[in-house]
Amino acid sequence: MNSPILGCSGISVRFGGVQALADIHFEAMRDEITAIIGPNGAGKTTLLNVISGMVTPSHGTLTFEGRGITALPAHERAWGGMVRTFQNLEIFSNMTVLENVTMGCHGRLSLPAWHSLLRTPKSRRLEDEVRREALEALDFVGMADLASVTAKDLAFGKQRLLELARALAARPKLLLLDEPAAGLNIAETQVLADLIMRIRDTYNLSVILVEHDMELVMRISDSILVLCFGQTISRGTPAQVQKDPKVIAAYLGGDED
Ligand SMILES: Nc1ncnc2c1ncn2[C@@H]1O[C@H](COP(=O)(O)OP(=O)(O)OP(=O)(O)O)[C@@H](O)[C@H]1O
């Protein structure tokens, strides 16, 4: 039976007078794509930030692979296999595509600095390995031919895929995607949807995504959490969530009755 990779229990976050999240209970299952949706200001990004360790909840606990991680800082969560992408692209624009992706491998594949300084055989082997894995990730997102291009010269859609390739190169167990389709056109969004499903199936990893594009969410998600004003208003499969009157009222702008 499938088990949760991530668990949130009673998560609350307050920013001054704003209750951004109130008592959120939520599980993301292994090898599944879980979407977090909701209207503007619902608390989606805040929840993603709590999961990745960038925001500390005022209440509640988090588990990752069954272990408590509530007090674990963001970088330790990343070492443990939780890797995220950002709504505003965070690529190194003056570096090449390949150099950007190799950044994803570091941390996982690293040696004490003196190995690199002295260019020991071990450090050269490691460099080869990093390069091979980075190229593999680029190939997976269909960008192997762009490896030597400077990142800032890529079209926006390709920059988004570059960020995804870098995240993949870190070999995550849980991939957190913050609005991966933002700024993409319809054709690029289709490519992205196929890619995210292929990532789940090929790498056997779990994905949590925050996304506004409902077509994408309904097409690729195994499970959806719907937030509104910091509260959970619905959870379930795309089919269940789509016909939930609370979701229709709050998110899709319909009537509850
Ligand atoms: N750092 C902060 N300081 C103060 N208030 C914040 C902060 N971050 C978020 N908020 C508030 O918390 C609430 C939830 O914001 P959040 O960004 O998580 O929503 P969201 O669902 O991701 O919205 P959007 O779809 O517009 O990105 C909002 O009312 C927002 O204004």
TrEMBL record:
Domain (ABC transporter): residue spans on this chain: 6-254
The keyword Lipid biosynthesis is assigned to this record: no
Keyword DNA damage: no
Keywords linked to the UniProt accession: ATP-binding, Nucleotide-binding, Transport
UniProt cross-references to SUPFAM superfamilies, sorted A to Z: P-loop containing nucleoside triphosphate hydrolases (SSF52540)
Gene3D superfamilies: P-loop containing nucleotide triphosphate hydrolases
Pfam families, sorted: ABC_tran, BCA_ABC_TP_C
Superkingdom of the source species: Bacteria
Protein name per UniProt: ABC-type branched-subunit amino acid transport system ATPase component
Organism expressing this protein natively: Desulfomicrobium macestii
